[in-house]
Amino acid sequence: MLGILGIKLRIERENLGLTQEDLARAVGLSSEFISLLELGKRMPSLDSLKSIAEFLKKDISYFIRERETAFEGLFSQKTINTQAKSELKKFKKYCDDYINLEEAAGRRLELAPAYSHLSPDRLAIEERRRLGLGDSPIRNIFLLVEMNGLRVYRQSISEECKISGIFIYFEIKEAAFALINKNLSEGEQIFTAAHEYYHYLRDRYTDPIIDNPDVFMEEYVSLYHPREKFAQTFARRFLMPPTKVKAIIEKDMRSARLEFEDVVYLKRYFGVSTLAMIQTLRELEYVDYSQYKEFQALDDVAYEKTLFGRSTGLDSVRKAKILPSDRFKSLAVLVSGAQKK
Known about the structure:
Blueprint lengths: L1 H14 L4 H8 L3 H8 L7 H10 L4 H5 L5 H7 L5 H24 L14 H12 L9 H7 L2 E6 L9 E6 L4 E7 L4 H17 L6 E3 L14 H14 L2 H12 L6 H11 L3 H10 L5 H9 L2 H9 L13 E2 L2 H15 L1
Parallel strand pairs: 1-3
Antiparallel strand pairs: 1-5, 2-3, 2-4
Helix pairs in contact: 2-3, 7-17, 8-11, 10-11, 13-14, 14-15
Protein backbone atom coordinates (compact mmCIF):
# COMPACT_ATOMS: atom_id res chain seq x y z
CA MET A 1 0.00 0.00 0.00
CA LEU A 2 2.88 2.38 0.74
CA GLY A 3 4.15 2.05 -2.82
CA ILE A 4 0.71 2.73 -4.29
CA LEU A 5 0.17 5.73 -2.03
CA GLY A 6 3.57 7.18 -2.91
CA ILE A 7 3.12 6.81 -6.66
CA LYS A 8 -0.37 8.33 -6.64
CA LEU A 9 0.80 11.21 -4.46
CA ARG A 10 3.67 12.00 -6.84
CA ILE A 11 1.44 11.83 -9.92
CA GLU A 12 -1.22 14.12 -8.43
CA ARG A 13 1.42 16.59 -7.23
CA GLU A 14 3.13 16.72 -10.62
CA ASN A 15 -0.22 17.04 -12.40
CA LEU A 16 -0.67 20.31 -10.50
CA GLY A 17 2.87 21.44 -11.34
CA LEU A 18 3.89 21.46 -7.67
CA THR A 19 7.25 20.69 -6.14
CA GLN A 20 7.51 18.62 -2.98
CA GLU A 21 8.25 21.87 -1.14
CA ASP A 22 5.08 23.49 -2.56
CA LEU A 23 2.91 20.60 -1.40
CA ALA A 24 4.60 20.45 1.99
CA ARG A 25 3.92 24.14 2.66
CA ALA A 26 0.30 23.81 1.53
CA VAL A 27 -0.50 20.93 3.90
CA GLY A 28 1.75 21.92 6.81
CA LEU A 29 4.25 19.08 6.51
CA SER A 30 7.98 18.97 5.79
CA SER A 31 9.31 18.43 2.29
CA GLU A 32 11.44 15.57 3.67
CA PHE A 33 8.26 13.85 4.87
CA ILE A 34 6.57 14.30 1.48
CA SER A 35 9.68 12.83 -0.17
CA LEU A 36 9.57 9.78 2.11
CA LEU A 37 5.86 9.32 1.38
CA GLU A 38 6.47 9.36 -2.37
CA LEU A 39 9.31 6.86 -2.00
CA GLY A 40 7.02 4.54 -0.04
CA LYS A 41 9.19 4.70 3.06
CA ARG A 42 6.76 6.31 5.52
CA MET A 43 3.13 5.81 6.45
CA PRO A 44 1.24 9.06 7.02
CA SER A 45 -1.05 9.56 9.97
CA LEU A 46 -4.77 9.76 9.25
CA ASP A 47 -4.70 13.51 9.85
CA SER A 48 -1.75 14.01 7.48
CA LEU A 49 -3.36 11.90 4.78
CA LYS A 50 -6.64 13.78 5.22
CA SER A 51 -4.87 17.13 4.77
CA ILE A 52 -3.10 15.92 1.64
CA ALA A 53 -6.28 14.40 0.17
CA GLU A 54 -8.31 17.55 0.81
CA PHE A 55 -5.68 19.75 -0.80
CA LEU A 56 -5.46 17.49 -3.86
CA LYS A 57 -9.29 17.23 -3.97
CA LYS A 58 -9.26 13.44 -3.64
CA ASP A 59 -10.95 11.01 -1.28
CA ILE A 60 -8.62 9.31 1.17
CA SER A 61 -9.70 5.99 -0.36
CA TYR A 62 -8.11 7.04 -3.66
CA PHE A 63 -4.65 6.76 -2.10
CA ILE A 64 -5.13 3.45 -0.30
CA ARG A 65 -7.78 1.40 -2.11
CA GLU A 66 -6.81 -1.82 -3.83
CA ARG A 67 -7.33 -2.08 -7.57
CA GLU A 68 -8.44 -5.70 -7.21
CA THR A 69 -11.97 -4.29 -7.24
CA ALA A 70 -11.38 -2.52 -10.56
CA PHE A 71 -13.88 -4.69 -12.42
CA GLU A 72 -16.57 -3.72 -9.94
CA GLY A 73 -16.06 -0.15 -11.14
CA LEU A 74 -16.46 -1.27 -14.74
CA PHE A 75 -19.63 -3.23 -14.05
CA SER A 76 -21.17 -0.31 -12.17
CA GLN A 77 -20.72 2.22 -14.98
CA LYS A 78 -24.06 3.46 -16.29
CA THR A 79 -22.91 3.25 -19.91
CA ILE A 80 -22.45 -0.52 -19.64
CA ASN A 81 -25.52 -2.47 -20.79
CA THR A 82 -26.34 -6.09 -20.00
CA GLN A 83 -24.70 -7.42 -23.16
CA ALA A 84 -21.53 -5.45 -22.49
CA LYS A 85 -21.38 -6.79 -18.93
CA SER A 86 -21.50 -10.31 -20.34
CA GLU A 87 -18.51 -9.52 -22.58
CA LEU A 88 -16.65 -7.93 -19.67
CA LYS A 89 -17.04 -11.13 -17.66
CA LYS A 90 -15.07 -12.94 -20.40
CA PHE A 91 -12.38 -10.29 -20.20
CA LYS A 92 -12.26 -10.58 -16.39
CA LYS A 93 -11.78 -14.34 -16.66
CA TYR A 94 -8.91 -13.81 -19.08
CA CYS A 95 -7.25 -11.35 -16.69
CA ASP A 96 -7.65 -13.74 -13.76
CA ASP A 97 -6.37 -16.71 -15.78
CA TYR A 98 -3.39 -14.73 -17.07
CA ILE A 99 -2.33 -13.60 -13.59
CA ASN A 100 -2.70 -17.16 -12.27
CA LEU A 101 -0.59 -18.53 -15.15
CA GLU A 102 2.15 -15.98 -14.48
CA GLU A 103 2.22 -16.86 -10.80
CA ALA A 104 2.29 -20.59 -11.53
CA ALA A 105 5.11 -20.16 -14.06
CA GLY A 106 6.99 -17.65 -11.93
CA ARG A 107 7.18 -15.22 -14.85
CA ARG A 108 5.93 -11.68 -14.38
CA LEU A 109 6.18 -8.81 -16.81
CA GLU A 110 8.05 -5.70 -15.77
CA LEU A 111 6.10 -2.47 -15.94
CA ALA A 112 7.07 0.29 -18.34
CA PRO A 113 7.75 3.68 -16.72
CA ALA A 114 4.70 5.68 -15.63
CA TYR A 115 4.87 9.16 -17.15
CA SER A 116 3.08 12.01 -15.42
CA HIS A 117 3.85 15.32 -17.10
CA LEU A 118 5.05 14.90 -20.70
CA SER A 119 2.91 16.11 -23.59
CA PRO A 120 1.51 13.35 -25.86
CA ASP A 121 3.93 14.34 -28.64
CA ARG A 122 6.93 14.28 -26.30
CA LEU A 123 5.79 11.05 -24.69
CA ALA A 124 5.62 9.33 -28.09
CA ILE A 125 9.16 10.49 -28.89
CA GLU A 126 10.53 9.46 -25.50
CA GLU A 127 8.86 6.05 -25.54
CA ARG A 128 10.10 5.32 -29.06
CA ARG A 129 13.59 6.30 -27.93
CA ARG A 130 13.34 4.12 -24.82
CA LEU A 131 12.30 1.15 -26.96
CA GLY A 132 14.95 1.80 -29.62
CA LEU A 133 12.40 2.10 -32.42
CA GLY A 134 13.84 5.09 -34.26
CA ASP A 135 11.21 6.30 -36.73
CA SER A 136 10.55 2.92 -38.35
CA PRO A 137 7.01 1.44 -38.52
CA ILE A 138 5.98 -0.81 -35.63
CA ARG A 139 5.40 -4.19 -37.21
CA ASN A 140 3.66 -5.88 -34.25
CA ILE A 141 2.15 -3.42 -31.80
CA PHE A 142 0.42 -6.19 -29.84
CA LEU A 143 3.68 -8.01 -29.12
CA LEU A 144 5.51 -4.76 -28.41
CA VAL A 145 3.10 -3.45 -25.78
CA GLU A 146 2.72 -6.87 -24.17
CA MET A 147 6.46 -7.31 -23.70
CA ASN A 148 6.45 -3.87 -22.06
CA GLY A 149 3.85 -4.81 -19.48
CA LEU A 150 0.46 -4.25 -21.16
CA ARG A 151 -1.21 -7.63 -21.65
CA VAL A 152 -3.52 -7.62 -24.68
CA TYR A 153 -6.69 -9.62 -25.23
CA ARG A 154 -8.59 -9.36 -28.49
CA GLN A 155 -12.23 -10.29 -28.25
CA SER A 156 -15.17 -9.90 -30.63
CA ILE A 157 -17.65 -7.44 -29.14
CA SER A 158 -20.94 -6.53 -30.82
CA GLU A 159 -21.54 -3.01 -32.06
CA GLU A 160 -24.39 -2.55 -29.56
CA CYS A 161 -21.90 -2.68 -26.67
CA LYS A 162 -20.16 0.49 -27.92
CA ILE A 163 -16.70 -0.70 -26.88
CA SER A 164 -13.55 -0.28 -28.97
CA GLY A 165 -11.05 -0.79 -26.17
CA ILE A 166 -10.64 -1.00 -22.41
CA PHE A 167 -7.70 -0.33 -20.13
CA ILE A 168 -7.55 -1.73 -16.61
CA TYR A 169 -4.78 -1.94 -14.02
CA PHE A 170 -4.54 -4.16 -10.96
CA GLU A 171 -2.39 -2.21 -8.54
CA ILE A 172 -1.66 -4.94 -5.99
CA LYS A 173 -0.70 -7.43 -8.69
CA GLU A 174 1.00 -4.70 -10.75
CA ALA A 175 -0.66 -6.13 -13.85
CA ALA A 176 -2.08 -4.07 -16.73
CA PHE A 177 -4.52 -5.30 -19.39
CA ALA A 178 -6.03 -3.94 -22.59
CA LEU A 179 -9.12 -5.32 -24.27
CA ILE A 180 -9.27 -4.71 -28.03
CA ASN A 181 -12.50 -5.22 -29.96
CA LYS A 182 -11.67 -7.82 -32.57
CA ASN A 183 -14.59 -6.77 -34.77
CA LEU A 184 -12.61 -3.67 -35.71
CA SER A 185 -10.48 -3.71 -38.84
CA GLU A 186 -6.86 -4.74 -38.43
CA GLY A 187 -5.66 -1.14 -38.71
CA GLU A 188 -8.24 0.02 -36.16
CA GLN A 189 -7.14 -2.66 -33.72
CA ILE A 190 -3.54 -1.51 -34.09
CA PHE A 191 -4.51 2.09 -33.45
CA THR A 192 -6.67 1.10 -30.46
CA ALA A 193 -3.73 -0.82 -28.99
CA ALA A 194 -1.54 2.29 -29.22
CA HIS A 195 -4.35 4.36 -27.68
CA GLU A 196 -4.65 1.96 -24.72
CA TYR A 197 -0.84 1.94 -24.39
CA TYR A 198 -1.02 5.67 -23.71
CA HIS A 199 -3.53 5.05 -20.92
CA TYR A 200 -1.10 2.45 -19.56
CA LEU A 201 1.85 4.87 -19.62
CA ARG A 202 -0.03 7.94 -18.43
CA ASP A 203 -3.33 6.98 -16.74
CA ARG A 204 -2.29 3.80 -14.97
CA TYR A 205 -3.50 4.86 -11.55
CA THR A 206 -6.89 6.21 -12.58
CA ASP A 207 -10.08 4.17 -12.69
CA PRO A 208 -10.57 1.65 -15.52
CA ILE A 209 -11.12 3.33 -18.88
CA ILE A 210 -13.67 2.28 -21.48
CA ASP A 211 -13.14 3.75 -24.94
CA ASN A 212 -16.17 3.75 -27.19
CA PRO A 213 -15.96 4.25 -30.98
CA ASP A 214 -16.69 8.00 -30.79
CA VAL A 215 -13.44 8.57 -28.90
CA PHE A 216 -11.53 7.74 -32.10
CA MET A 217 -13.43 10.31 -34.19
CA GLU A 218 -11.98 13.82 -34.35
CA GLU A 219 -15.50 15.23 -34.51
CA TYR A 220 -16.44 13.77 -31.12
CA VAL A 221 -13.27 13.22 -29.08
CA SER A 222 -13.43 16.73 -27.60
CA LEU A 223 -16.69 15.76 -25.87
CA TYR A 224 -14.79 13.31 -23.67
CA HIS A 225 -12.17 13.57 -20.94
CA PRO A 226 -9.05 15.44 -22.21
CA ARG A 227 -6.99 12.28 -21.75
CA GLU A 228 -8.77 10.78 -24.79
CA LYS A 229 -7.55 13.59 -27.05
CA PHE A 230 -4.07 13.11 -25.60
CA ALA A 231 -4.26 9.34 -26.22
CA GLN A 232 -5.29 9.98 -29.83
CA THR A 233 -2.37 12.33 -30.40
CA PHE A 234 0.06 9.91 -28.78
CA ALA A 235 -1.20 6.97 -30.86
CA ARG A 236 -0.73 8.88 -34.11
CA ARG A 237 2.75 10.08 -33.18
CA PHE A 238 3.78 6.67 -31.82
CA LEU A 239 2.59 4.74 -34.87
CA MET A 240 3.31 7.37 -37.53
CA PRO A 241 6.30 9.52 -36.52
CA PRO A 242 5.99 12.86 -38.34
CA THR A 243 9.66 12.75 -39.35
CA LYS A 244 9.09 9.50 -41.23
CA VAL A 245 5.81 10.61 -42.80
CA LYS A 246 7.43 13.82 -44.05
CA ALA A 247 10.49 11.97 -45.36
CA ILE A 248 8.40 9.58 -47.45
CA ILE A 249 6.19 12.31 -48.88
CA GLU A 250 8.97 14.76 -49.67
CA LYS A 251 11.47 12.21 -51.03
CA ASP A 252 9.12 9.89 -52.87
CA MET A 253 5.78 11.50 -53.68
CA ARG A 254 6.96 15.05 -54.31
CA SER A 255 3.54 16.21 -55.41
CA ALA A 256 1.81 19.42 -54.43
CA ARG A 257 -1.38 17.54 -53.69
CA LEU A 258 -1.68 14.03 -52.25
CA GLU A 259 -4.08 11.66 -53.96
CA PHE A 260 -6.04 8.90 -52.27
CA GLU A 261 -3.66 6.25 -53.59
CA ASP A 262 -0.87 8.04 -51.70
CA VAL A 263 -2.93 7.84 -48.52
CA VAL A 264 -3.55 4.11 -49.02
CA TYR A 265 0.14 3.50 -49.68
CA LEU A 266 1.13 5.34 -46.49
CA LYS A 267 -1.48 3.60 -44.37
CA ARG A 268 -0.19 0.21 -45.57
CA TYR A 269 3.38 1.26 -44.86
CA PHE A 270 2.60 2.24 -41.27
CA GLY A 271 0.06 -0.54 -40.74
CA VAL A 272 -2.71 1.72 -39.47
CA SER A 273 -6.31 2.48 -40.40
CA THR A 274 -7.08 4.79 -43.29
CA LEU A 275 -8.82 7.20 -40.92
CA ALA A 276 -5.78 7.44 -38.64
CA MET A 277 -3.56 8.10 -41.66
CA ILE A 278 -5.85 10.83 -42.98
CA GLN A 279 -5.99 12.46 -39.53
CA THR A 280 -2.20 12.49 -39.35
CA LEU A 281 -1.84 13.97 -42.84
CA ARG A 282 -4.32 16.67 -41.98
CA GLU A 283 -2.40 17.53 -38.78
CA LEU A 284 0.80 17.78 -40.79
CA GLU A 285 -1.01 19.98 -43.35
CA TYR A 286 -0.55 17.63 -46.29
CA VAL A 287 -4.34 17.30 -46.53
CA ASP A 288 -6.81 20.18 -46.20
CA TYR A 289 -10.27 19.93 -44.71
CA SER A 290 -12.05 19.37 -48.02
CA GLN A 291 -9.70 16.49 -48.89
CA TYR A 292 -10.09 15.13 -45.37
CA LYS A 293 -13.87 14.88 -45.80
CA GLU A 294 -13.53 13.60 -49.38
CA PHE A 295 -11.12 10.82 -48.41
CA GLN A 296 -13.27 9.82 -45.43
CA ALA A 297 -16.22 9.19 -47.74
CA LEU A 298 -14.30 6.85 -50.09
CA ASP A 299 -14.45 3.03 -49.88
CA ASP A 300 -10.85 2.47 -48.80
CA VAL A 301 -11.13 -1.34 -48.70
CA ALA A 302 -12.28 -1.61 -52.32
CA TYR A 303 -9.75 1.02 -53.38
CA GLU A 304 -6.92 -0.85 -51.70
CA LYS A 305 -7.92 -4.16 -53.29
CA THR A 306 -7.91 -2.51 -56.70
CA LEU A 307 -4.46 -1.03 -56.17
CA PHE A 308 -2.69 -3.85 -54.34
CA GLY A 309 -4.77 -6.98 -54.89
CA ARG A 310 -5.74 -7.31 -51.23
CA SER A 311 -6.75 -5.13 -48.34
CA THR A 312 -5.11 -4.96 -44.92
CA GLY A 313 -8.41 -3.64 -43.57
CA LEU A 314 -9.70 -7.00 -42.34
CA ASP A 315 -8.12 -9.18 -39.70
CA SER A 316 -6.85 -12.41 -41.27
CA VAL A 317 -8.05 -14.40 -38.23
CA ARG A 318 -11.29 -12.49 -37.80
CA LYS A 319 -13.40 -15.67 -37.67
CA ALA A 320 -12.05 -16.44 -34.21
CA LYS A 321 -14.21 -14.84 -31.51
CA ILE A 322 -11.30 -14.42 -29.12
CA LEU A 323 -7.58 -14.08 -29.63
CA PRO A 324 -5.41 -14.63 -26.54
CA SER A 325 -1.87 -13.31 -26.84
CA ASP A 326 1.01 -15.54 -27.87
CA ARG A 327 2.55 -15.08 -24.43
CA PHE A 328 -0.65 -16.22 -22.72
CA LYS A 329 -0.74 -19.36 -24.89
CA SER A 330 2.94 -20.01 -24.21
CA LEU A 331 2.42 -19.74 -20.45
CA ALA A 332 -0.61 -22.05 -20.63
CA VAL A 333 1.45 -24.73 -22.40
CA LEU A 334 4.33 -24.27 -19.95
CA VAL A 335 2.14 -24.58 -16.85
CA SER A 336 0.14 -27.46 -18.30
CA GLY A 337 3.33 -29.38 -19.06
CA ALA A 338 4.71 -28.76 -15.58
CA GLN A 339 1.51 -30.01 -13.96
CA LYS A 340 1.62 -33.27 -15.95
CA LYS A 341 5.13 -34.10 -14.73
